[in-house]
Predict the structure of Gamma-tubulin complex component.
Amino acid sequence: IIMAGKSMQLLKDLQCAESTTCQATARDAERKSLYTLFLESVRSRLRHGEEPTAQVLTEQRGTKGNLIKIQSIAERHLELDDVHDPLLAINFARLYLEQSDFHEKFAGGDICVDRSSESVTCQTFELTLRSCLYPHIDKQYLDCCGNLMQTLKKDYRLVEYLQAMRNFFLMEGGDTMYDFYTSIFDKIREKETWQNVSFLNVQLQEAVGQRYPEDSSRLSITFENVDTAKKKLPVHILDGLTLSYKVPWPVDIVISLECQKIYNQVFLLLLQIKWAKYSLDVLLFGELASTAEKPQLKEEVLCEQDTAAQFGPQKEPVRQQIHRMFLLRVKLMHFVNSLHNYIMT
């Protein structure tokens, strides 16, 4: 009820086109009020089963013995506790039957049930509301919210804003976001300061402004310090980046701050995967290779045999280590690239 009321109020505030208003007025003239629909459903429920069909009567005759048996079992259980209440026995028997079958199977013959009292008194008021009122509320709620969504899509460019969220937060923008995050990764690789908010926003505006000039003014990025213990792990070095996208009213009802928090969680996950991919791509083991190829300074002092004995055998293990590290790098690249392609596509 609250959601339907909010949707109705929002539709009224949006002041839809006159044609839509005229159509809605015509529909409202033919539509019955919720109170009228509720009364009709209650009356229909009270009258339900007054004229059973031939098929229902056949089923009643076929199951009559079992129903009487169930009632007799309930009565015997009550007699053990010195309770003699036929109505209570019928209600205990109801526990063994489905609600929809109770009216049909207990009708006619030796067992008489007052349907008006059974619908109103024996059942809780909540069940009556569930069957007679809630379906009408749900229908009007769906119609109202559906009209609101159509209005947001048609008149307020909701789909375009959602596509912009996908382009930037889910990185479907391709080259745009690549230019942005590689500039950060380069700073991290060179061990330079990159957490400056001005630097981050300048890089974001330069990357987005080239291909999406309309969205560049809506985007901004901030950085918040997080737990230093997590920062020790390279994968968490990007924690604290928060991307923001400003949307006008009433689209911000759909793309709310809570919604953007969820988008930011996905954005951070994608950044971590791309950071791992970038790190493996630029990893070349240059220091190990230079150590293996470095000339020995003591070769002129020591004899050739002593030099070969001391330094010759040490070069092979270093080269083997480099070879193994390259093999490990290839395996890690295969895993990270597969994960990256799976998530991005």
User: Anything to note?
Assistant: The beta strands are 219-223, 241-245. The longest helix spans residues 304-344.
